[in-house]
Amino acid sequence: SKMLAGDGEGATALFECHVIHADTKENARTLAKSVICSSLTKAAIFGHDANWGRILCALGYSGVQFDPETIELFIESEAGKILIYKDGKAADYSEEEATRILSCPAVTALVDMKTGDEEATAWGCDLSYDYVKINADYRS
C-alpha cells in the first residue's frame, strides 16, 4: 500500500505521516490520515515547504483533542531529520536544510503527541501541478 500511495498519477513524492506517543491507536490513525489527506499539506510537500502551520491545522480539524503547546513536529527523509515545531511555536531550524530534506522522493511528517504509547502511519502523495492536471482532465 505504501508503494501504491506514492505512485499517484503526477505525484512527485511519497508522503508519509507517522504519529507517535498518541493516547489511543484510533486517535493516532485519525491524526495521521488527516495530515495525509490535507490538500494544503500535500501542496506544501510538493513545494518543499516545511509549513508546520498546515500540519498543525490538519491535526486540528481531525476531531482529536490535543494540546498544541505540547506536541512536536519533525520532517524527515533520507537527507535527514529536523524539528520544525515545539512548545506551541516554530522551532529554530534552517530553511535550507528543510528544503533539502523535503526535496527527496519520500518525505515523512513525524508527529509526537506526547500523550501515550500508541502510534500509526498513513501514506499518500504530494499535490503537484501534474497531479491536478491529470485528474482534472480525466473523464469516466
What does this structure look like?
This protein is an alpha+beta fold and 140 residues long. The protein is 37% helix and 28% strand. Strands 4-3-2-5-1-6 form a 6-stranded mixed β-sheet. α2 packs across α4 (52-60). The longest helix has 13 residues, at 25-37. The chain is globular. The two termini are 24 Å apart. The model has no long low-confidence stretch (mean pLDDT 93).
Topology at a glance:
Elements: H1 2-6, E1 14-22, H2 25-37, H3 39-46, H4 52-60, E2 72-77, E3 80-86, E4 89-90, H5 95-102, E5 106-112, E6 118-125, H6 129-137
Helix pairs in contact: 2-4
Question: Nutshell version of this structure?
Answer:
The protein is built from six helices and six strands. The protein is globular, with a radius of gyration of 15 Å.
Strand order of the largest sheet: 4-3-2-5-1-6
Number of helices: 6
What structural class do you assign from the helix and strand content? alpha+beta
Q: Main beta sheet: strand number and arrangement? A: 6 strands, mixed
Radius of gyration: 15 Å
The sequence of SSEs as H and E is: HEHHHEEEHEEH
End-to-end CA span? 24 Å
Number of strands: 6
Contiguous uncertain segments of 5+ residues: none
Specify the helix fraction band: 25-40%
Approximately how much beta-strand content do the residues carry?
A: 25-35%
pLDDT average, as an integer? Answer: 93
Keywords: Acyltransferase, Amino-acid biosynthesis, Arginine biosynthesis, Autocatalytic cleavage, Transferase
Family: Belongs to the ArgJ family.
GO molecular function, one term: L-glutamate N-acetyltransferase activity, acting on acetyl-L-ornithine as donor
GO biological process, one term: ornithine biosynthetic process
